[in-house]
Design goal:
It contains 13 helices and 34 strands. With about 625 residues, it is an alpha+beta fold. The protein has a 6-stranded antiparallel sheet, with helices on one face. Strands 18, 19, 20, 22, 25 and 27 form a 6-stranded antiparallel sheet that branches. A 4-stranded antiparallel sheet has the order 21-26-23-24, with no helix packed on it. Strand 8 (about 150) and strand 9 (about 155-160) form a beta hairpin. It is globular.
């Protein structure tokens, strides 16, 4: 399981670009005959087992007999084998874990894997596995509609885990696991209504029970807003997260598309509206049209669980609401290319790209999004992470076993464990690639020419301050320190052959402060460091990258800031007007320029997408055009 955010530190679209296979997973086409499949359920099957839970007041499921469950972790052993374990401290005398052996989060998502596998390949074993997991998931659901997170090896429920997770007890309020339960129930209903209507009806009843919980605990605030550092953010997101809400929206979209209730359609519309309202920034301004995942911070973007674009695409199809596509496209066509050219699908921009670790949960979310929006050429660069285009330069997925490793650190160390979450999202990615065989297979170590970070405290001038904790409660100081500037400071910058945007990452506070920025005798811009009302934000102030009006000239290697009042400067972000990443003989170009640029890149064909995510040109890579705010892919 991925830690919750509380513990992590660190235009219109052509209908031709929205195939049903991208937007409605339950309607995915059969895999092409004669092709070699990437998906392999072997390791997921190894993690799966069955248990007969003891009778528990208020907890029932469909039918009788054992239910299907999934071990949470699989630790890599010295001999190359894997050992299945649960979460928390293990007590051999009672055969229990501080948390449990199996959890609703992973059971729900594994059910989605087996459902999509059956949809693509029509293998009865996958449908049987999905049924067993859905029966366990519904046993974990309480009469109030919420869901108990943990189950011990013998099937006993553990509502209050050690260490404590919120809400506590785990079925006392809205949660990520309730959202993921709705995801599985919705996709399960869509599949089983064609194969077992009685079971589908049961799944629909349980999804409606979950909706009762959402209406009582979350949607009761529809139309209300929270203030977060001066911004109005929707107050009707599940656990204040567009990330958690996006996973519920995937399930609700499947349910509504399969004939679900008017009540479910209303909930879907409200949740999708909330997600869309988390879109922020512009081509040149933080967060570069990304949909922010956390409704309590304007400074945090994380990859894990960031399924917001694909959720909005699914909701747009289910509701026939094309207005939802705009924010989704902004995220995939605007932010994602910058992410990929800055170092790949890193885990956290907080707001400086600090958490450079990369995990399948984050990579899969990016891949599902670009495929859902019809950007197959971009999808190749996301998928390449599994095949070696990552910080380690080595494959993270083994198609012969179905294992996806548990992540790679920013300095290139692979975690060879292969737990449920990584395995699940690796398989979801492979199923998506199997359903889209036209996505180019790229591999090899990537070469980047994108965003660069210059630490604030590297300047000559000012005072370096190291707070007690780098984590502020809503964001994180880069390198754990910042520069307090009351006069003048100068930074030495890496050289570049093209102009670059400069975004000082500053702490916006109630204190009055301004900074004037110059390079080579030219004023690049003046920044006001005053922030908005704190509201529900966990910390006073907000770390924000603010874009200087004029780009840094090509060749400039020095930048000076003069402060009025005391400014807090965390880092400088330098973004080339045309960023790029090369993987083998394929190149991705991303633009933050205000004018079209022609770039010569080796290759056989160039594919140009504009800022609205449309493929607008195909041509000679010797004169590849990169549109303002768009991206271009050159394939060898």
């Amino acid at each position: 399981m991925t830690p919750t955010r509380r513990t992590v530190l660190g235009g219109a679209l052509s209908a031709a670009l929205l195939p049903a296979s991208s937007l409605a997973h339950a309607a995915a086409p059969a895999a092409p005959a004669g092709t070699k499949h990437l998906s392999n359920l072997g390791h997921l099957d190894y993690l799966r087992t069955s248990v007969t839970p003891p009778a528990t007041a208020g907890h029932t499921t469909y039918g009788a007999g054992p239910v299907g469950v999934l071990w949470t972790y699989a630790d890599h052993q010295a001999d190359g084998s894997y050992k299945r374990i649960g979460g928390g401290t293990y007590d051999p005398s009672t055969n229990t874990y501080g948390q449990g052996a199996y959890n609703a989060d992973d059971i729900a998502r594994a059910a989605v894997v087996y459902l999509r596998h059956w949809t693509l390949f029509r293998r009865s074993a996958a449908l049987d596995a999905a049924r067993g997991l859905l029966r366990a998931l519904t046993f974990l659901q309480s009469p109030n509609g919420n869901v108990v997170l943990w189950m011990q090896p013998d099937g006993t429920l553990n509502p209050s885990a050690d260490p404590v997770e919120l809400p506590d007890p785990s079925d006392s309020g809205p949660s990520y696991w309730l959202a993921r339960t709705v995801w599985a129930l919705g996709e399960g209903y869509a599949v089983f209504r064609r194969t077992d209507r009685a079971f589908a009806a049961f799944l629909g009843e349980r999804l409606e029970l979950a909706l009762t919980a959402f209406e009582r605990q979350v949607l009761v605030r529809y139309g209300e807003y929270n203030i977060v550092d001066g911004r109005r953010l929707p107050a009707w997101l599940i656990v204040n997260g567009a990330d958690a809400t996006s996973e519920a929206v995937l399930g609700l979209s499947a349910y509504v598309s399969a004939g679900g209730s008017a009540r479910a359609r209303r909930a879907l519309s409200h949740f999708a509206d909330g997600i869309a309202r988390m879109s922020a920034g512009s081509m040149r301004e933080w967060p570069f049209r990304a949909i922010l995942p956390w409704g309590e911070s304007i400074s945090d973007w994380h990859a894990w669980g960031a399924q917001m674009p694909s959720a909005l695409a699914a909701a747009a199809a289910a509701l026939d609401a094309r207005d939802l596509l705009g924010p989704a496209i902004g995220d995939t066509a605007g932010f994602t290319p910058l992410l990929l050219t800055a170092g790949g699908p890193d885990n956290g921009w907080l707001p400086t790209p600090i958490d450079r670790s990369q995990i399948a949960y984050g990579v899969d979310a990016r891949l599902q999004a670009v495929l859902a929006l019809g950007q197959q050429h971009l999808a190749a660069f996301v998928a390449a992470w599994y095949f070696g285009a990552n910080h380690a330069g080595a494959p993270m997925y083994d198609a012969t076993t179905g294992r996806t490793y548990d992540g790679v650190s920013g300095d290139g160390v692979i975690n060879r464990n292969s737990g449920a979450e990584s395995t699940i999202h690796g398989q979801l990615s492979m199923l998506a690639l199997d359903a889209n065989p036209g996505v180019a297979r790229l591999s090899g170590a990537p070469a980047y020419d994108g965003l660069q970070i210059v630490e604030g405290e590297s300047a000559a001038g000012g005072q370096v301050v190291t707070p007690p904790s780098a984590w502020t409660g809503e964001s994180q100081w880069s390198n754990g320190s910042y520069l307090a500037l009351g006069a003048t400071a100068t930074w030495t910058l890496p050289a570049a052959t093209q102009p670059r945007l400069v975004l000082p990452v500053v702490n916006l506070t109630e204190a009055a402060a301004r900074t004037r920025w110059t390079a080579d005798g030219r004023t690049l811009g003046t920044l006001d460091h005053r922030g908005g009302a704190q509201g529900i934000s966990a910390a006073p102030g907000a770390l924000q990258p603010l874009t200087l009006t004029t780009p840094l000239p090509a060749g400039a290697t020095s930048l000076t800031a003069k402060a009025t009042g005391t400014a807090q400067i965390d880092a400088l972000l330098l973004i080339p007007l045309i960023s790029r990443v090369q993987i083998g003989d394929a190149t991705l170009l991303a633009s933050v320029d205000t004018h079209p640029r022609t770039v010569s890149v080796p290759g056989s064909k160039a594919y140009t997408y504009d800022a609205s995510g449309r493929l607008v040109a195909q041509g000679n890579p010797a004169r590849a055009v990169v549109r303002p705010g768009g991206f271009t892919v050159v394939l060898g």
